[in-house]
Amino acid sequence: MSLFNKSWRSLRPLFTSRGYCEKSIYQKHEEGEKPRLVYGKEYPEWRKPWIKRKGEFTSKLGLFVEKNPNPDILNMLSKAPNLTVAKIKKWWSEMKDLQEIENQKYLPERVAALGFNLAAVQFFVYRSCSVRLKDSQDWIKGDITTLKLPTTFVEGYLVEAIDCSTFYRGGIRYEGLENIGNLPFLKWLSLRNGKHIDIWCVNRVASLAGETLEYLDLSGCNLCSNCVFALARMHKLRILVITDPGDNLEMQTALSLLEEENPQLMLKTIQE
């Protein structure tokens, strides 16, 4: 036998096209799909395709669901010939806004574990804000790496003041304001320089904390006369800080009506 034939026989196992110890497709079907693991842990539920999540309805037509491309990807591909740097930047900015909206949403699970007050402390402090508790002169501030807050319900965390003027990534949004609800001792709130604060946000503040707030700072926010009318619902408000309306007659008239509605209100204006 030639040397070539001997070497070929020794290499034949490396070129086999099929492993005969491999299970058939029928055996795999009977055993069912194995859970996907990431670093030794099961894949989190929120990252699974919706068709594989618990409680979702599945049918034979579900075989075609995962094979379909993502509609967002299809949309981008359809615009590929006309893509420009400006359009890509606009799309990326919109994606970041959507991510930030999701990040600020009210989480019932967090409130169930911590209670309304401690959940609010964690939400605001971990987003670069400051919080002061009832009967305390010190402000709680820091970040998630240096500040260790309780991870379960603890009595005594009664929120009295929240300073959102340093809220990260452009300021608090309409979705994040829901976290000031159910705080019966909240009397002081600063939304200064909040670029997302508008009539809808002011209305939400009036609805959620209008019965307790005594101090509200809206300087640097995008206000209109309708915002002032919403503030009229806050009967306990004693100090309101806003940017000087200047020659805006409509805003000046609304502020005059607000002072007539609430004679105990002290209005402070700040020059830009």
Structure described in brief:
The protein has helices at 3-11, 25-31, 71-78, 85-104, 108-114, 116-125, 199-209, 225-231, 249-261; strands at residues 37-38, 41-42, 130-133, 139-140, 159-163, 188-190, 215-217, 239-243, 266-270. With 272 residues, the chain is an alpha/beta fold. The model is unreliable at 14-20 (pLDDT under 50).
Report on the structure:
The protein is globular. The chain has a domain of 166 residues: Leucine-rich repeat, LRR (right-handed beta-alpha superhelix), CATH 3.80.10.10. Helix 7 packs parallel to helix 8 and helix 8 runs parallel beside helix 9. With 272 residues, the chain is an alpha/beta fold. Helices cover 34% and strands 11% of the residues. About 3% of the residues have low confidence. It contains nine helices and nine strands. The strands form two sheets. The protein has a seven-stranded mixed beta sheet with strand order 4-3-5-6-7-8-9, with helices on one face.
Task: Explain the layout of strands and helices.
Blueprint: H1 3-11, H2 25-31, E1 37-38, E2 41-42, H3 71-78, H4 85-104, H5 108-114, H6 116-125, E3 130-133, E4 139-140, E5 159-163, E6 188-190, H7 199-209, E7 215-217, H8 225-231, E8 239-243, H9 249-261, E9 266-270
Parallel strand pairs: 5-6, 6-7, 7-8, 8-9
Antiparallel strand pairs: 1-2, 3-4, 3-5
Helix pairs in contact: 5-6, 7-8, 8-9
